[in-house]
Amino acid sequence: MSDDARPAPTLAHENVEDDEGHPILVAVDQNQTFEFAVDEKECAVYTKEHDVSLLNMIASWMTNLPPQAPFPPPPHIVQKPLSDMVKQAKDRGNEAYKKKDYVSAIKHYTMGLAMASSRPMWEASGVVAEELSIMLANRSAAFLAAEAYIEALCDADAVTKINRVWGKGHFRKGKALAALQRFDEARAAFDLGQQFEPDNEDFVKAIAELP
After folding, report:
1. Band of the pLDDT at 36, cuts 50, 70, 90?
2. Where do the domains of the chain lie?
3. Which of 9, 10, 59, 145 places its Cα 20 to 30 Å from the Cα of 78?
């Protein structure tokens, strides 16, 4: 019998339950039928035929959305109040940095990082990446000025992983490595960043300052 001539599957297990009292239904996957149990209380399904862990995770996450949230959420939504708060934290950090109050600057940048990373997963990933990159780069500079060189390197390295083609992340990484007297690695970081921003004179100056 050809695939087209196969009879449609029927719910032979309708009103049948598993050992825990969950109703058993039948689904079709590429002309093959398989059974699955439904736990309505937990908003989860169970089957031995497929890995449904991701489906159950998404279903569980959806149940935690506030009642007023769009369902499903519209793509590329951005919460402007949260964006304003992140910017405010960045601006306050910049003001403290200019005053050489590096402890306060680090505190404000850290607050901005926490807010930026708290965005829901449906928001535009580019917005989150940009906020995190800027805040980490700024905090790296503040750590460097406060002579916390390891922390400065960690933040800068994170920037290069989030946004590899942004020269400032490699510049911050090079400065932190130079402060740690890891000059060969610093030169490599500056050279890589300069490839992305060949007209940036900061790289030329930073490389010239290396022993």
Report:
1. low
2. 3-63, 80-209
3. 59
